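User: I'm new to structure prediction. If I give you an amino acid sequence, what do you actually give back? Let's try with this one:
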Amino acid sequence: MATATRTARRDAGSKEFSFAWEGKDKSGKMMRGEMRAASEALARSSLRRQGILVSKVKKQAFKRGGKITEKDITLFTRQLATMMKAGVPLLQAFDIVGKGAPNQAVAKLMMDVKSDVETGSSLNQAFRKYPLHFDALFCNLVAAGESAGILDAILDRLATYKEKILAIKSKIKSALFYPVAVIVVAVIVMTVIMLFVIPSFKSVFSSFGAELPGPTLLVIGMSDFMVAYWYIIFGVLGGILYGFFYMWKRSEKMQFAMDRLFLRLPIFGDIVRKATIARWARTLSTMFAAGVPLVEALDSVGGASGNYVYRSATRQIQSEVSTGTSLTVAMQNANVFPNMVTQMVSIGEESGQLDQMLSKVADFFEAEVDDAVEAMSSLMEPIIMVVLGTLIGGIVVSMYLPIFKLGAVV
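Assistant: Good question. You get back a string of structure tokens that encode the predicted 3D arrangement of the chain. For your 410 residues, that looks like this:
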């Protein structure tokens, strides 16, 4: 019974709400803000412990917000960095960001983090409670900034880093959007033609009175097969796609194989490789500049690269660096970086400016990604048009071939 009572109390205490409060501090100055607490009584008690004479406490009703995206976290990081550089106190900065966030889910997250900081947690400890939104890289950099007393500078570097990474991902997604959208529309059009248009032509050709051309018979046969077994076809395709993506998300071997395949693709692979190297260099530059030891920084670099081939290579590099091997030699042994990258790293190690050299490498490859995406976009458009024109045009011509023979039959 006692155990059940303690469990119930713990469950009740774990549910917190947001309260808006007003009151006066010890000097009589009016203050207001928001805080998280399990009840109004606990909120008042917490404020009294802080030396605030409470005049009003009101429970806030949070509306269910949307999903918190990487763009939301990037914007929050930039806003927090800007306000801290301007001298705004940390808790007040969270108030400003939370109240100004259009996404209520972001506002709630900010209030939750602020509440943890108010109760004595360090900022990096508060962030670590929300690993879905703040990864190990983010938390480690914030911890380094707090310990060195340069949190505003670290947040500024972190915001720049996240903006650069977000820009690369956005460019790649925008380059893929057009071909994927065209292919999806083409599949829908082909399906409609096969299921509804071709059967109408087949009923017309049934009284044709002559042998149909080979291409027409082939298209009609494909249409008959799809009409008879469309539920099986779509079911099997759906199952294959679901199983593929299920295994891709949960199998490290599958992810490694797919990432290696992406790197070997004729046109797209070069873009993926350059984007991965840019993220890798940008991450290591940001962490090294923040004062994080190289071996420890490499823990986060591999995961931030977004590619299992480079994650595996980073583990090998980390292992060699931890035994005294220079970063340049370890990167050469990994055999996944171009010669230009290793030469820049070598110069950075010799001159003591490794973070700056890695930043220049990231800048170079980000520019290369921009150029490659533009080139791929201009190249993909005519190729897609030719392929779709051949497929759909071939079907249309096949169905009109018997009409061309109609004069001979009459």
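You can read the tokens as a compact description of the fold. Here is one thing that stands out. Strands lie at 17-24, 30-37, 53-60.
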